[in-house]
Amino acid sequence: MAIKSFHPPQRILMGPGPSDVSPRVLEAMSRPTLGHLDPVFVSMMDEMKELLKYAFQTKNELTMPVSAPGSAGMETCFVNLVEPGDKVIVCQNGVFGGRMKENVERCGGIAVMVQDDWGRAVDLQKVEDALKANPDTKVVAFVHAETSTGAQSDAKNLVALAHKHGCLTIVDAVTSLAGSPLKVDEWAIDAIYSGTQKCLSCTPGLSPVSFGERALEKIKNRKNKVQSWFLDLNLVMSYWGGSTKRAYHHTAPINSLYGLHEALVILQEEGLENSWARHQKNHLALRAGLEAMGLNFVVPESERLPQLNALTIPEGVDDALVRATLLNDYQLEIGAGLGVMAGKVWRIGLMGHASNKRNILVCLGALDDVLGRVKAPVQLGVAVAAAQKVLEN
After folding, report:
1. Does residue 290 contact residue 311 with C-beta atoms inside 8 Å?
2. In CATH terms, is domain 272-392 a member of 2.60.40.10?
3. Tens digit of pLDDT for each residue in 254-307?
4. Of the N and C termini of the chain, which has fewer Cβ atoms inside 10 Å?
5. Where are the alpha helices (DSSP H) in the chain?
6. Domain spanning 23-269 has what CATH number?
7. How far is CA 344 from the centre of its chain?
8. Residue 31 annotated as lining a ligand binding site
């Protein structure tokens, strides 16, 4: 059988990620490949560090993209900051808090779990109680924007609480970076990781991270060697370092980094606060349409991510059938529920390049049609007008 070139269909990506990639990013990735130690490429790496510092709102010198997806950014934080026997308080209010627990245990650490209902923010009082009960805790880890539920936790006060008890913090910002207010230096976050495929509108495969001085102190004074060679920051720092000569560590994903550079230039052009405001306004328009139909959000408004909207599937509606029909008839992807929410919720993303008026109206119109076809108990013919009213104000 002769296999031919692969040409994917053009989809509208409104799931939990990846989001639609800006054409400018795709064009940037098609540019000529350079050697990863070429002086011109090294110069671009320096620019990227500055652009990432802007996105994270930090002056941390160790701010860079890990050459792998967001999960590797998570692992970078844990393998460098958690040693065997270290006690780590892990806040879980969705799928990704569970992955943090797995990382702690694989590092030989002891995970103390603080559990909250899926779809709710992390409870500050529960974390304080856990810190008082475990005074030997070294690290507090939590998800700022829980992708599995659309809940957003109070990062600023969680970090302040951890520091009050002498702990470092590890923060998952995979879905919040560039979509919701996130201020690494102002909130004094010690270690943070994100992904490129959400609100940055880049392709998947890179994980921006940033480490503050307290975290670097811990890394430089470890008793044990970091268990991962590839993710050992003591080694990676020599490649992503400052003005000193860069040492070979691994072959960076050159063209993917071109794409991230362009995505960050686009963010700089729009302005970070404007990006946050755009995501919020578009959420309000989408919310108006969905609520006009009679669909219910999982997360209370005060704890809700604007860029990821989790909705309860109406009674008697076939989850998989609706999503498949949207994909086949409208080329529109929305997300299914994960874990305990599988089959119970839809997740509609409004992230980065995909967070725009056209996508909101297409999504609402498509849902109106498909839910009407399956005779869902919703109000038809009202969603688009409700959203337009918000968009026009």
Report:
1. yes
2. no
3. 999 999 999 999 999 999 999 999 999 999 999 999 999 999 999 999 999 999
4. N
5. 23-29, 39-56, 70-81, 95-106, 124-133, 155-164, 184-187, 213-220, 233-240, 254-270, 272-293, 319-330, 357-373, 383-392
6. 3.40.640.10
7. 22
8. no
